[in-house]
Amino acid sequence: MNVLETRDLHHDFSGMKVIMGIDLKVAEGERHAIIGPNGAGKTTLFNLISGTYIPSSGKIFYRGKDVTQLRPYQLSRMGIGRSFQITSTFANMTAFQNLRLAVMAKHNIRYDIFRFVNKMKNITRETEDLLDQIDLYNERDVLACNLSYGKARALEIGMALGTDPELVLLDEFTAGMSKDETASAVQLVLKLTENKTAVIIEHDMDVVFSIADRITVIHYGKILATGLPEDIRKNRDVKDAYLGDLYVS
After folding, report:
1. Domain annotation covers residue 248
2. Residue ranges in the chain assigned as alpha helix (H)
3. Is residue 34 part of a domain?
4. How do beta strands 2-13 and 16-27 pair?
5. CA-based end-to-end distance of the chain
6. How many CB atoms lie within 10 A of CB 145?
7. 101 occurs within a structural domain
């Protein structure tokens, strides 16, 4: 069964066409990478899938249900989580407080000054477990704005996964990272997306070819190719449009 499917998806901004007839299928349990040149429409596609934008035309299906018109909070409740290209944590909250919000959202608990949140033992326990999973337990009381870049990105990934989504969308999760930070982030994503379905936008081709089960290449708002990593490596159209000779056999 396809967890995610788009059918003849289109989107434009004031007449400028950005997404033109995207038919994407993501199978359950796979890590599906979306790659392409800058301006190809990758982040716009994510914004459509995650409900930030409503498509000009076409349909989006999650587990066979039409979710084209749903908003981000509705999709989150259905089991879709997303991280962003630019870190989007709450800067003046600690790592623990950021993750606790995600865990509370998972349990449909709104923050309320009349609730004794610190006494919600199950929420605290789940938050601490998540801190441990993303290797931030020792930074639990550090403000997000004071975390190193790599750890701030790890926190955002943790927040995306804190709601325990079945489908997670990761947008450029290694952007701006050093080589060592990238290696750590890849291991973190592999661990946290085990037994989940993930769609990943990524510019680092070493990361893509090490993490993806399948790859879709987008060029000028259209799908140029979809296939296994080894097939994408060999695709001459992909080489000409994006990869060059380095990653193509």
Report:
1. no
2. 42-49, 72-78, 95-106, 121-133, 149-162, 179-192, 205-211, 229-234, 236-238
3. yes
4. antiparallel
5. 32
6. 12
7. yes
Q: Which two tokens stand for residue 81?
A: 């989580």
H helix or E strand, kind and range, residue 27: strand 16-27
Distance CA 21, CA 222 (A): 6
Backbone angles phi, psi at 26, to 5 degrees: -125, 115
- Cβ atoms of 164 and 108 within 8 Å: the answer is no
Q: Identify the domain containing residue 68 by its residue range.
A: 2-243
- The CATH code of the domain that includes 235 is 3.40.50.300
Structural domain tally of the chain?
1
Residue-wise pLDDT tens digits, 92-141: 999 999 999 888 888 777 655 455 555 578 889 999 999 999 999 999 99
Task: Please answer whether residues 198 and 189 qualify as being in contact, where contact means their C-beta atoms are separated by less than 8 angstroms.
Answer: yes
d(CA 101, CA 70) in angstroms, rounded, equals: 22
Q: Has residue 249 been placed in a domain?
A: no
168 and 196 in contact (C-beta within 8 Å)?
Answer: yes
Confidence class for position 51, pLDDT limits 50, 70, 90: very high
